[in-house]
Design brief:
The chain is an alpha+beta fold and 669 residues long. 29% of the residues lie in helices and 24% in strands. α8 packs parallel to α10 and α9 runs antiparallel to α10. The longest helix is centred in the middle third of the chain and has 19 residues. It is globular.
């Protein structure tokens, strides 16, 4: 606890000068997670409504307090109103970056999700006001379970009093000697409270484009700095102070494990010298290829090399544990890079030397020879272009055959303007991995805000660098005109449709006959294998016409993409019926013009020409979502040649992969 309290800080509102007893500016606690980085609660750091704070700390015991300016660079969630600081929704975390370099100690943070934490006793540290003065405090608590789910999950703690001001302080696993969470709240009677697991930081925003430097991604920057800090302090042979690895070793935290605390510290430091994984899907693929690994499930999917190492702790017992770790390290050495820094080659060599040293000491000759061969064949990969041309793990999926995000919106007929929803990551084989759900009803006006965090997590699970995954939204026939592509996931955020392909699907189709199902699949297959042709079905000679009957629609060529020029902008029952008729006519791909001038004398010639060209240029169905995405980007970038497409929606409903039933897209227990 001496190491913990030494890194625990106070958070104050910004002031012209620091006054140690200034109680009125005291906001709460926090702790140094990495050099120049402080972790605290969002409701603490954002209490004043701004992002500037003062961080008060001691460089070492007895050295006297120092105040340094800091800026909140990330808050989770980032759109909660400051007026409700006391009830800031989980995960309620904030990263504060110091305005100048200072000397200070840092805590050691677990590399495992809290779900893997098996101890019962935890300690906490922080600051509170006692008799008009601010004083340090600590206490003992007992883990009592969790409350909430997914990003709302909190660790329930009981036992000691959690006084005001402790929010933002560290929660410590006393059995293993590592910080596992951040104190969030105190119970109404003051006994116990809740804590947020450190792994919730994995939901920090992912850079929208391929990173070119470590600093492009706050998550990677913080934890690389954290692991390098502890590796450097452990390697400092002239130092006399105990390190976290020293204390963990005395606790027996490494007993029965493959690596001692000292070995783990060195390994994490060397992994932190490498550029990070290119994406979460890439890291998951790498882990899945290791022998005897359980599938990595749950909310806290790994994002950094240290996270992947933590996931290895859940491996089966069939493979030698030390072999598994060394295989993982070799995969990290030869993995595709988002960028290559000047020191990357040396970092790969240093990690290889560590792997070789452990293998020479503990493993048979054949395994050592396999590692040496793998190292030798990896040396030609020296830049990003070579690595992206020949990925070290797996092959990049073909367009149209990669994972996508599936959102199912179900209107509650007994509760107008309210929806149940289910969200998951759908793979091309039809498997859907659940992410989040709500069966209690969400008001339509609150959908975008409620879905912001779950969608961000779902996107992280399947986005590839420079290639955002598609969002498919399943809607009832009467709702196919809903402009989900224009949703914004936060204040000032661009529309979803300009960030990634967004398409709609039909969730309430009647069960087709065998002949109808065969015909629908044949139509779909034709649009995938040959050039498509657009056909406007509700507008002729600049005049509104009724959509043909289902039989007439079925008579159209299989390579036809129906286009609704007039009906989709109509909010009445006939407009909805027109969309439904196209779907029931056997078409699972269609274009809908939802917005635009509606008077009957409007000239549509330009729209018709452009949409014909767009479908023809896309060629096959798998390219059409990306083409519509490019048009939406053009509208947002104010390129006049794309304005004709404003409000254009794409129905894209693959009959080969039907929507899962209600029981197939639920949260895992």
């Amino acid at each position: 606890m001496a190491l913990v309290t030494a890194a625990t800080v106070r958070i104050h509102g910004p002031a012209a000068g620091y006054v140690p007893e200034r109680l009125d500016g005291f906001l709460g606690s926090g702790f140094f997670i990495a050099p120049s980085w402080v972790l605290t609660c969002a409701h603490v750091a954002m209490q004043g409504g701004g992002r500037e704070v003062d961080v008060v700390y001691e460089a070492q015991p007895g050295a006297g307090e120092t105040s340094v300016k800091g800026t909140v660079v990330a808050a989770l969630p980032d759109n909660a109103p400051a007026a409700v600081a006391a009830s800031w929704p989980a995960p309620d975390l904030a990263l504060v970056k110091l305005g100048r370099p200072v000397d200070h100690p840092c805590v050691y943070v677990t590399e495992r999700p809290t779900a893997f934490f098996g101890g019962e006793e935890v300690r906490f540290a922080g600051w509170t006001a006692v008799d008009g003065r601010l004083q340090r405090l600590s206490g003992r608590l007992q883990v009592q379970g969790t409350v909430g789910e997914w990003s709302d999950e909190q660790i329930r703690l009981g036992g000691d009093t959690v006084p005001p001001g402790a929010s933002g302080g560290p929660t410590v696993d006393m059995a293993r000697g590592e910080v596992i969470g951040v104190v969030k709240s105190r119970s109404r009677d003051g006994l116990g409270g809740t804590s947020i697991g450190i792994e919730q930081l994995r939901s920090l925003p992912v850079p929208p484009a391929m990173a070119t430097a470590e600093s492009d991604d706050d998550y990677q920057a913080v934890f690389h700095a954290h692991d390098r800090y502890h590796a450097d302090h452990h390697a400092n042979s002239s130092g006399t102070k105990q390190t976290w690895a020293d204390v963990q070793s005395r606790l027996g935290a490494g007993a029965g494990r493959v690596l001692s605390p000292q070995q783990r510290t060195v390994l994490l430091g060397r992994l932190a010298e490498l550029p990070p994984p290119v994406s979460t899907p890439g890291l998951l693929d790498l882990l899945a290829r290791l022998p005897d690994m359980y599938p990595v499930e749950g909310y806290a999917l790994p994002r950094a090399w240290r996270d992947g190492l933590g996931a290895l702790y859940e491996a089966r017992d069939g493979q030698s544990a030390v072999e598994l770790i060394l295989r993982y390290c070799m995969s990290a050495i030869v993995a595709e890079r988002p960028y290559v820094a000047p020191g990357t080659g040396e970092a790969e060599k240093d990690l290889w030397e560590w792997v070789k040293s452990v293998a020479d000491d503990r493993l048979p000759r054949q395994f050592r020879n396999d590692l040496s061969f793998q190292w030798g064949t990896s040396r030609h990969r020296t830049d990003r272009e070579q690595r992206r041309a020949a990925p070290a793990y797996g092959e990049r999926p073909r367009e149209g055959e990669r994972s996508h995000v599936l959102l199912v919106l179900e209107p509650r007929s007994w509760e107008p303007d309210s929806f149940d929803w289910r969200l998951g990551v759908a793979r091309f084989n039809g498997e859907v991995r659940p992410v989040a759900m709500d069966s209690g009803g969400t008001a339509f006006h609150a959908l975008q805000e409620r879905l912001a965090a779950p969608l961000a997590e779902a996107f992280r699970r399947c986005d590839e660098p420079d290639s955002p995954a598609m969002l498919q939204v399943a809607l009832a026939q009467s709702m196919l005109g809903l402009d989900v592509d224009n949703w914004r996931m936060g204040p000032g955020e661009p529309p979803l449709g300009s960030l990634r392909p967004v398409v709609v699907r039909c969730s309430d189709l009647p069960v087709p006959t065998e002949a109808e199902a065969d015909e629908t699949k044949a139509r779909w297959q034709r649009t995938w294998s040959g050039a498509m042709r657009a056909h406007v079905v509700d507008c002729a000679d600049e005049l509104w016409v009724s959509v043909p009957s289902e039989d007439e629609l079925r008579a159209l060529a299989y390579d036809t993409v129906p286009v609704l020029c007039r009906h989709a902008v109509r909010p009445d029952a006939e407009g909805a019926a027109a969309l439904a008729r196209v779907v029931r006519g056997g078409f699972r791909i269609a274009l809908l013009r939802r917005r635009g001038p509606q008077p009957p004398d409007v000239v549509c010639g330009e729209f018709h020409r452009r949409v014909f060209d767009t479908v023809g240029e896309a060629g096959t169905a798998d390219q059409l979502p990306r083409r519509i995405h490019e048009l939406r980007q053009g509208v947002r970038a104010e390129r006049p040649e794309t304005y004709w497409s404003d409000g254009l929606a794409l129905l894209y409903d693959d009959p080969r992969h039907p929507l899962p039933g209600t029981g197939q897209l639920l949260e895992a227990p």
